[in-house]
Structures are given as C-alpha cells and as structure tokens.
Design a protein that fits this description.
This is Protein Mo25. Pfam families: Mo25 (PF08569). GO terms for molecular function: protein serine/threonine kinase activator activity. The protein has 20 helices and no strands. With 335 residues, it is mainly alpha-helical. It folds into 3 domains: 120 residues, Alpha Horseshoe (Leucine-rich Repeat Variant), CATH 1.25.10.10; 125 residues, Leucine-rich Repeat Variant (Alpha Horseshoe); 87 residues. The protein is elongated, with a radius of gyration of 26 Å. The N terminus is likely disordered.
Length: 335
Amino acid sequence: MPLFGKSQKNPAEVVKALKEAVTALERGDKKAEKAQEEVSKQLTNVKSILFGAADTEQQTEILIAQLSQELYNSNLLLLLINNLSRIEFEGKKDVAQIFNNILRRHIGARSPTVEYICTKPEILFTLISGYEHHDIALNCGTMLRECARYEALAKIVLYSDDFYKFFNYVEVSTFDIASDAFSTFKELLTRHKLLSAEFLEANYDKVFSHYQQLLNSENYVTRRQSLKLLGELLLDRHNFTVMTRYISNPDNLKLMMNMLKEKSRNIQFEAFHVFKVFVANPNKPKPILDILLRNQEKLIDFLTKFHEDRSEDEQFNDEKAYLIKQIKELKPSAE
C-alpha cells in the first residue's frame, strides 16, 4: 500500500509548491492574486497532513516527520512569517495553526522545531516586529506565546535587544494589540521562574528603568496591568534578590504611596499589594524607614479607612490589619 494515499500529497511536493507560491506573492508581480490562491490551497494541504488525513496514526507520524524536515530545510517558516501580511485572512490563521502545531511536535524528550528555531532566532525577532503591523499583530502574538512556553526560546527573546520593544508595544493605541503584547510580555517574565529571576537580576537597571515608564503611563490599562504584574513578580520567591533591591529604593516607595491615592480603586488596590512588601520587610534600609516614620500617623489613618467596603475579602483585611500594626510599631533605627 503506498504511503501517500490517492488524495494524500507528498510533503516534499506540498512544501515546494507552497514555497514557490509564497515567493511569487513576495515578488508582487501580476500573478499575485493567483499566487495568493495557491498559497491558501497549499496551506490547506499542509494542514491535512498535520491533522491526520492518512489512514493510520503511524502513517500520519511519518508524514509529519517528513513535512517538518522539509519545512526546516526550505526555510519556509521564516518565509511565511515574512510574508504574513500578503496572505489572505484565513491563510494567516492557517500559518499560525501550522506553526504552533509543528512547534509542539516532540520526539521523546526532544523538540525538533524548538532546536531548529534556536539556530534561526530571526524567526523570533520577525514575530516580535509583527506587533508593528496591525493586520498580523495578533497572529504573530499567538505564535510568540507558543514559543515562550519553551525555555530555550524564551531565553533568546529575553536576552535580546528586541525584548525592550515590548515596553512600546504594550502602549500602542490599538487596545487588542496592546493587550496581546502585554500577554506575551507577561508570559516571557513569568513562565520560566528561574530563567526570569536570572534575567531580571542581570538586567535590573535596564528593565526597571523601562518598567517605570509603564507605571507612569498615561494609559490606565497599561498602568493597572503593569502594576499588577509588578506585584506578582515581587512576591514570587524566585525573585527574592530583585524584590529586595526594588523595595530598598525610596523612589519606588514614594511612587507606590502616590498610587495608593489614585482616583482608580483598582490601581489603589494593586498598589497596596506592592506597598505591603515595603512595610513587611524586616530589614528596612534607613531611607525607607525614614519615609514611613515621617508619614506614620497619616499612613495609619489612611489605611484604616482604605477600601473599608471589602469586608468579604478576608485576606485583604488580614493584610491591612498587619500593615497598620507594623506601621504603628515602627521606631527610628539606632544610629
């Protein structure tokens, strides 16, 4: 029985036809419309190989292995991403689906596509710059978040200059794109705990000078999301060194105290979760202690009345009571 059934295309032929069609689309000649149709057709053929049009599971596995190898050898993944804007709407979604499916493929403990992308990091950087093009931003985001699940790929992104582009992408005026970029940004900083901790420690000044811009953003959603994420990062035990450094800076404390008084109750609430880390620190540096002592009475009064309507939130009320007690018991440090 032939490996490729009557209706089943040979992976090598499909990849070759798809590459030719995308290349024609890239040239943008008179046949571009026909090339677009051909791209859509061949993407459907790739999906039929991936999602098991063969008669048995074993045959499907063999076909997918061949397809993957052809995709690597032809450099087609990068070509598709580079030309994503030229592919029609459904085709864009097909590219993301194919990319993510091939990425998840593993042989035992190995992930061949992850290994391949490690040798072609421009795939990751091209996906990142996709956020600059509104017609493909969300497709690129879907593929990037799938990449971020793999530590080796997340590491390439974090330690690249391109990572800092996210501080701009999360503030773009198109809400869907800004939200998607923030989801990817958060995934990169929280998915692999040890990797993130090492990265933040090694690049503390650069990351947090950029992060400060987000906390001072004119955009309410950006400020709220970045404040919430900051709280999560500081309270993660893997980030103990980063947290200690952050809560030793009096400017950071002043910022949080100002954010406690924001008009938005949501921002007040997220600021509370960062502020509590400063107060709970048993080894407060003198500049931090001085600020808290200078504002001791005001803080006790303020916190007593702070979000009194959250009576059902037991954890919040316990934390608030603990902070009030800590601030009441503050004493100047012995010089």
